[in-house]
Amino acid sequence: MNGDLHYLYKNIRYKLIHVNGELFILDSERPRGSIIFPFIHWILPQKAFKVTDKKVIEKLTDSHDQNSNDKYPYLLIAGISILLANLIRPVISYFGNQFSLLISLLFLVSSFLMVLFFRLYLNKRNEKKLDNLIKGELKEHTMWIRPQSFKRLVVPIVFYLMCLIFILLSSLGFVYSGNTIVLLCFIVFAFFLLIVNWYTVETGNITVKFIQ
Q1: 160: three-class secondary structure by DSSP
Q2: How far apart are CA 97 and CA 196, in angstroms?
Q3: Terminus of the chain with fewer CB atoms < 10 Å: N or C?
Q4: Is residue 212 packed enough to be buried (19+ CB in 10 Å), middle (13-18) or exposed (0-12)?
Q5: CA atoms within 13 A on the CB side of 64
Q6: Average pLDDT over residues 131-139
Q7: For residue 4, which of 17, 22, 14 has the smallest C-alpha distance?
Q8: Residue 61: exposure state from Cβ atoms within 10 A (0-12, 13-18, ≥19)
Q9: Is 69 buried (19+), middle (13-18) or exposed (0-12) by CB count in 10 A?
């Protein structure tokens, strides 16, 4: 059956799905492995939560906008990336851009872990925002979700592969040059890679099949 999907206002982790006059909340972070392999959303059935309380439905539908996105994460990651690059620059200058392979890898791994921790922080932040709207347990349903067009299938895959390529190139570039700007590019693309799962299930019309 066909459904209609929207972002939850200022909470890009969750989606609102309207199917046959009923409202469901889809969590983009489920399954947990989707943060690394976002296309698992198309391979495995998804868990969605049915909202039946009229007051809760009013809160959710009154505060959502089809085209709204929370720009806060992107502004914050940009600020953190610049701050991190500025903090690392004196260290790089001290070594004269002459790093051993081990030191370069430590910089890259540490930067990636910081991006990952920030990404997990956003998860908790969005979860708390939803908890403020909904009190109590919701009934869980299992559904298959499929993109309705070839474009919606290809765009996330291409973006994911591009992020991987740029991460690889920036990693190699930093190992050979020790350049702070190259490290900044690595951080930005690492963050983009870890949020692809927010967009594999895009807003608009979707095909939904419930699993009993």
Answers
A1: helix
A2: 33
A3: C
A4: exposed
A5: 24
A6: 74
A7: 17
A8: middle
A9: middle
> What angle (nearest 5°) sits at the alpha carbon of residue 8, between those of residues 6 and 9?
115
Q: Which residue has the tokens 């502004």?
A: 75
Looking up tokens 């067009």 gives 149
> Which distant-in-sequence residues (6+ apart) come within 8 Å of 99 by Cβ?
92, 107, 175, 178
Mean pLDDT check: name the lowest of 56-60, 61-65, 129-133.
61-65
Residue ranges of domains in the chain? 2-211
Question: Of 51, 52, 49, nearest to 143 (Cα)?
Answer: 49
Question: 86 or 2: which carries more pLDDT confidence?
Answer: 2
Task: Tell me the C-alpha distance between 94 and 17, whole Å.
Answer: 53
Between CA 138 and CA 184 the distance in angstroms is 41
